[in-house]
Amino acid sequence: MNINDRLREIRSSFQISQREFSKRIFISQSLYADIEKGNIEPKERFLRLISSEYNVNLDWIKTGNGEMWNSSPIDLRLEYLIEIFKQFNPELQDVILDHLKRLLEVHRKDS
């Protein structure tokens, strides 16, 4: 697995598009696509941004050595969920919370 594959794996772990991924690290989607394809060699600053923003082990990004995550991917998904949730107005936040409560009830009944 090369660095391009590892970058793709990070993005896939969050199940987000290249556009969403690149937006959080302040680069264009087209630049990120070229990096992920291996057409452009990623710069150190870029790799550090990914490591910081997505809480991924910098050494793992560069070499594949060590653990992928600096913390649990579940924690990272929760942070991402919170970031999205904050973008809604309070009324929609209430609607989302109601839906989540109902989903939890259904999940508990099915378990």
How is this fold's topology laid out?
Elements: H1 3-14, H2 18-24, H3 29-37, H4 44-54, H5 58-63, H6 73-86, H7 90-110
Helix pairs in contact: 2-3
Offer a concise description of the structure.
With 111 residues, the protein is an all-alpha fold.
What can you tell me about this protein's structure?
There is one protein chain. This protein is mainly α and 111 residues long. It contains 7 helices and no strands. Helix 2 packs across helix 3. It is elongated. The model has no long low-confidence stretch (mean pLDDT 92).
Number of structural units classed as domains: 2
What is the CATH architecture descriptor of the largest domain? Orthogonal Bundle
Shape label:
elongated
- What proportion of the residues form beta strands (DSSP E)? under 5%
Judged by helices, strands and strand pairing, the structural class is mainly alpha
- Let me know the CATH homologous superfamily of the largest domain: lambda repressor-like DNA-binding domains
- Give the helix tally: 7
Question: What is the CATH class designation of the largest domain?
Answer: Mainly Alpha
Element pattern in H and E: HHHHHHH
CATH topology of the largest domain: 434 Repressor (Amino-terminal Domain)
Using the CA coordinates, give the radius of gyration. Answer: 17 Å
Total beta strand runs: 0
If you average the pLDDT, what whole number results?
A: 92
For the record, give the distance between the C-alpha atoms at the N and C termini, rounded to a whole number: 38 Å
The main sheet comes to: none
In percent, how helical is the residue content? Answer: over 70%
Low-confidence runs: none
